[in-house]
Amino acid sequence: IHPRHDAIGAWARMQQVKAEEAENQGGGSGVNIDEDTPMPKPVHCIKDAELRVYLQHQFQARRIAFTDNVLVFSWSEGESIVDMIPLNEILQVSRARPEDWANPEDKEDIEFWDTTEKRKKRISKFLFTADHKLCEFKISTVPEGYNSGREYIIQTDTEEDCVDWILALQDATKAAATKWRKRNRIKRFQARLSVWFKSFKVQAFIGLLIAGNFIQEALFLQIRPDFPGQE
Q1: Torsion angle, alpha carbons of 80, 82, 87, 93, to 10
Q2: Which of 33, 63, 210, 218 gives 37 a disulfide partner, CB atoms 3.0 to 4.6 angstroms apart?
């Protein structure tokens, strides 16, 4: 095994042990990280770089890294985690469109002649300079997860870096989701069984069984023969 891969696995196993301890105490996101948790060392990461996250209508510098089970953020050149995304809770990693992040003032009205309808039309469109490169990608998370469905827009330095991050995150996300499903197979079955058991139809059926059993016992006591000496 390559030393880097072994180091990544060691950090992930350490976090998993902490996560299982948290789950046993009532937690449940699959990772156990708080504001005091240090960023993983570069040797423990699949990727680790200074990128930019779209926050408050502008891209802000952040250190971003991910292991085989979690994506973490810190301040630029920071050492403590300020936010995280469990990889098994990522719905999609894809290229971001300008509409996902551009400011309203970047939009301009354009008039054009519709040859089909034979009339002028006007549309609003985001305009960028010819040398602008689309280096942004989007991470969508599950609504019921740790990040409550939040979408993250992240900007890299080059288009090549953008594609590289997307492909690496897609692979890691797929592997993390598979691992999480296998590890939580029994819990997911129990959850589905609990939903089924609490459904109205099942509860009504159980109620009918109890009522039927009570009526059967009552009828049996009424029609059974009396034996000598029995009061």
Answers
A1: -120
A2: 33
**Residue 88: what pLDDT?**
93
Whole-model pTM above 0.70? no
Four-CA torsion 88, 60, 81, 184, nearest 10 degrees: -10
Distances (CA, A) of 186 to 29, 31, 180: 16, 18, 11
Average pLDDT over residues 12-20: 52
Q: Specify burial of residue 1 (Cβ count, 10 A radius: 0-12, 13-18, 19+).
A: exposed
Which two tokens mark 63? 């250190």
Task: Please list the alpha-helical segments (H only) found in the chain.
Answer: 3-24, 98-101, 159-183, 185-197, 200-223
**CA 9 – CA 6 distance, rounded (Å):** 5
Please say if the pLDDT value at position 17 is more than 80.
no
Is 69 exposed, middle or buried (CB count within 10 Å of its CB: 0-12, 13-18, 19+)? buried
Question: Given this model, what pLDDT does residue 230 score?
Answer: 54
Distances (CA, A) of 123 to 21, 109, 110, 134: 55, 6, 5, 22
Of all residues in the chain, what percent carry a pLDDT higher than 70?
67
